[in-house]
Amino acid sequence: MLEHLAQFYAVYGSVINFIGINALLALSLNVTLAAGMLSLGNAAFAGLGGYAAGILTLHFKMPYAISLCGGAVVAGFVGVLLGMPVLRLRGVFLAMATLAFGEVVRIAAVNLDITGGAEGLTGIPNVTKTWMIYLALAGAAYFMAVLRRSRLGWGLVSMREDETAAACLGIHTTFYKVAAFTIGAMLAGVAGGMYAHLNYLITPRDFGFFIAVDLLIYNIVGGTRTWYGPILGAALITALPEILRGVGVTAGPIRMAVNGLILLLVILFLPNGLASLFTRFRPAAAKAGVA
Amino acid sequence: MKGLRVANICRSFGGLQALMEVSFDVAAGAIHGLIGPNGAGKTTLINILSGVLAPSAGEVVYQDRALHRSPAHRVAAMGVARTFQNIRLFPTMTCLENVQAGQHLTARRPLLPRLLRLPSAAREDRQLEERARGTLARVGLDGKTHHLARSLSYGERRRLEIARALALNPSLLLLDEPVAGMRRGEAAEVANLVRSLAREGMTVLLIEHNMAFVMNLCSRITVLNFGRVITTASPEEVRGHREVIEAYLGSGERHV
Question: What is the pLDDT at residue B251?
């Protein structure tokens, strides 16, 4: 039995690692989505965290844990700076502004010397272990689950439902938005740092536009309203190429088509994502309300 | 002055003067009505009083504190709660959760004790839930605790909005058409609720088109028409006021 597990890990270890990293990234986006903000900046925050952590390790010879923290702090700091002006925007306009921020980060990474230009930052020691990723994921998931019951969490969910009404309940909406944005950025920064220390290198392409959109897809497929929804979505979409290969379909253009099909089916039939399959049913009386 | 003073409030939207030099006082603990034909500026005034809109000129003083420069969340912290004409509940939350969300200012709900699973966090959550259930019972929604807000009937939604406002523990309650679309029996229950709130010392300012409701409930009534105050007087005086009747029914002379 143990032997089989070891064999499984030898074959699928990297998929398992990437599921963990992607799930972390999906959760980081979920902090802002839970408050009704559509941000596409989390991939760029992960990039910032990854570069910062990589630079700390390579150029400043910092230990791994310090580098990760440094990555989170840099991403969080930029999150505050970006959040204060950008979070006045709503809906699609916020998405566009954060997307532009992602491009700024990418172009900066291409053109700066300290980030290694287009080649990226290479030679980062591979010290991220699977258990570290899943420990961080468990911590983040626990944090998200508890956050919802805290003052901040109630405020964020109220804002998602109706911002004006939330403000009239005494919720300082601007502060809460920046707080959510910053927490999400820090979490993405940690994930980026782990990625950089897993992959030996980090390049400007690693956290581009498509990754930003992928994070959104993880959340939509899994469901934004629970802490486990984004994890489910990230796991399914990340493992999909392997699953497809298992049933005899080679990855490639078909993979994107299947991704799209899953997204479509979820939006049509499970508006609250895969997570709604697991939601405990409320008392019978409430079911009338759910329908 | 412990009550609410509205002084020379003006507000324009582009070229439209929605409110012009609106002034009146609301005594502490009173039930004060705000009436007027559609488009008179009643909701605009409530939006200014609750900090959702800033006035173009004039001031609002409540319990000796100016609140016309404060954003909505600070006005709420001064003890002012409101409902909305076009009901703004949290639709995918249950009734209980709507009220719990309304407890934002009275609850502490710190994150750290919750992360550490300290008993104090569980205790606070239990107390808050208990209180929220009490608030729901007060508006007669104790049978709907776990129903989603969007599944409620129109009248129930209005009552849930009042419950969410009450969860703030306000000293001034602004109600924008609290019984619009309600059955008569339901409206009478709301009237009783408002009376009992006033007896406990809460000041209530309400907009309503249901004249019987306003006349029976309010001790003073301010009448707005085209953004101006026609009069602030007792229900009896308002009923006999020539300009008020003209505002509602139109003047005979115009048709001659």
Answer: 65
For residue B174, pLDDT over 70 is answered with yes
Q: Do A170 and B104 touch (CB under 8 A)?
A: yes
Which candidate in B104, B124, B156 is best for mutational testing of the A interface (most A CBs within 10 A)? Answer: B104
Contact yes or no for A167 and B91 at CB 8 A: no
Residue A250 included in any domain = no
Mutating which of A143, A164, A168 best tests the B interface, going by the most B Cβ atoms within 10 A? A168
B102 CB neighbours in chain A (<8 A) are: 169
The complex's ipTM works out to: 0.94
Q: Looking at CA atoms only, how far is residue B219 from chain A in angstroms?
A: 26
For range A154-166, the mean pLDDT: 96
| Residues A27-75 pLDDT 10s | 999 999 999 999 999 999 999 999 999 999 999 999 999 999 999 999 9
Lowest mean pLDDT among B28-37, B97-106, B189-198, B241-250: B241-250
Residues from chain B contacting residue A161 (CB–CB below 8 Å): 89-93
User: Which residues of A touch chain B, with CB atoms under 8 Å apart?
Assistant: 142-143, 146-147, 149-152, 154-155, 157-158, 161-162, 164-173, 282-283, 285-286, 288-290
Kindly state whether residue A177 falls inside one of the protein's structural domains.
yes
Of 3.30.750.24, 3.40.50.360, 3.30.470.20, 3.40.50.300, which CATH number belongs to B1-79+171-256? Answer: 3.40.50.300
Domain ranges within chain B, ordered by starting residue = 1-79+171-256, 88-169
Q: Which fold is adopted by the domain B88-169? A: Rossmann fold (3.40.50)
pLDDT tens-digit map of A187-197: 999 999 999 99
At residue A280, does pLDDT exceed 80? no
Structural domain boundaries enclosing A121: 12-208
Residue A109 covered by a domain: yes
| Domain total of chain A | 1
With CA atoms as reference, the chain A residue closest to B76 would be A170
DSSP letters for chain A: -HHHHHHHHHHHHHHHHHHHHHHHHHHHHHHHHTTT-----HHHHHHHHHHHHHHHHHHH---HHHHHHHHHHHHHHHHHHHHHHHTTS-HHHHHHHHHHHHHHHHHHHHH-TTTTGGG-B--------HHHHHHHHHHHHHHHHHHTTSHHHHHHHHHHH-HHHHHHTT--HHHHHHHHHHHHHHHHHHHHHHHHTTSS-B-GGGGSHHHHHHHHHHHHHH-SSSSHHHHHHHHHHHHHHHHHHHTTPPSSHHHHHHHHHHHHHHHHH-TT-GGGGTSPPPPHHHHHHH-
Q: Which of A146, A170, A288 sits opposite B114 (nearest CB)?
A: A146
A23 domain residue, yes or no = yes
Mean pLDDT, chain B, rounded, equals: 94
Model's pTM, two decimal places?
0.91
Q: For position A281, what pLDDT does the model report?
A: 47
What are the chain A neighbours of B71 within 8 Å (beta carbons)? 167
More confident residue, A284 or B69: B69
